[in-house]
Amino acid sequence: MSESAAREAVTRAHRTEWARIVAGLTRRFGDLGIAEEAAAEAFATAVARWPADGVPPNPGAWLTTTAGRKAIDRLRREKRRGEVEQEASMWYDDSPPEPVGAIEDERLRLIFTCCHPALAMETRVALTLRMVGGLTVPEIARAFLVRETAMEQRITRAKAKIRTARIPYRVPAAEDLAVRVDGVLAVLFLVFNEGYLTTGAGPDPVRHELTAEAIRLTRLIRSLLPGDGEVAGLLALMLLTEARRAARISASGDLVTLGEQNRGAWDASLIAEGHRLVRERLASGVAPGRYQILAAINAVHTSAREARDTDWSQIVALYDRLVRVDPSPIVALNRAVAVAELDGPEVALATVDRLEPALAGYHAFHVARAEFLRRLGRGDESREAYDRAIALAANPAEAAHLTRRRDQLG
């Protein structure tokens, strides 16, 4: 087997098996650091051996066995096996979360371990993206708009705190779920987003295994908390976004924007399920949270048969509600994009320019400016904004799309 083919097989296995292997090792050895390092060593071994030996019939089983051996070897070297085995019962806490019942899913257990309230919210999200989502430190750093070294330190400290604080490896009891679920939802949302438009260095602009896993785990959490509006809202948001995935990338590998997509290629069953969840939450009469509002915005988009039929006034009204719930610069940027469709690009550009101090390193900020300037006939400024967006865009399909848009300016 060629080295390139073997590396591709390792990459595929990493995308599909990483979280399962880390979760299994964490359950077995009770240490996130050991689990992650043993898993990484197993994949490194695969890179070295598979070109000569060939890809095994069951790559996941091979990697799991190899990672287990690596972990045991490390414990023997450190003479820690007895210590770990003594502490293992704490990690193997299988008590069912009454009264909702236990969910035997290793990755869900791992998410709740990483999202313990003893950790800061941003740390919970970053750690879970690494341990469950399999994202690299550079990918996570880009999601948080921070330096890679700072993110590496944050994740390392989080793993150490889980070990020293003896945080158990389990889905929490019912009375603890509400405290933990916000961080879990934030993690799953970011995992889904990374899958929907990846920032990694791989060749695929969309990572379906990540979007599918985020949806699967969100469904599991909804079975734990069926009355939680934000869980339902996040699930609806994911479904309505996933429904558009087939139309997201062109045959030539370019990103296809929402307004240009072939709506006949959207998944009607996912849209129907997402709309049903949105209607159920509206009928509840409870004030919606962030994910429910985002789902409602996507419901408006997916209700329009053609892009020109989009009810932009309703979308702006929903963003007005979202700004009150989540007054972040990114929400303000997305609202401005909707305002441009309603009130014109000049009004939107004035709003966006005020956001530059907070979003100068965010590629979507420069994309919005480029499009507004383009519509205003300010070609040179638009081209400069496209250049900055292309330099910051981590996804190859998006970079290709922006390059095409810039070059159309002449």
TrEMBL record:
Signal peptide: none annotated. Residues 111-162 form the RNA polymerase sigma factor 70 region 4 type domain. InterPro entries: DUF6596 (IPR046531), RNA_pol_sigma70_r2 (IPR007627), RNA_pol_sigma70_r4_t2 (IPR013249), RNA_pol_sigma_r2 (IPR013325), RNA_pol_sigma_r3/r4-like (IPR013324), TPR-like_helical_dom_sf (IPR011990), WH-like_DNA-bd_sf (IPR036388). Pfam families: DUF6596, Sigma70_r2, Sigma70_r4_2. The keyword Transit peptide does not apply. Keywords: Sigma factor, Transcription, Transcription regulation. GO terms for biological process: DNA-templated transcription initiation. Residues 180-280 form the DUF6596 domain. Residues 23-81 form the RNA polymerase sigma-70 region domain. It comes from the Bacteria. The keyword Transcription applies. One of its GO terms (molecular function) is DNA binding. Belongs to the sigma-70 factor family. ECF subfamily. This is RNA polymerase subunit sigma-24. It comes from Actinoplanes cyaneus.
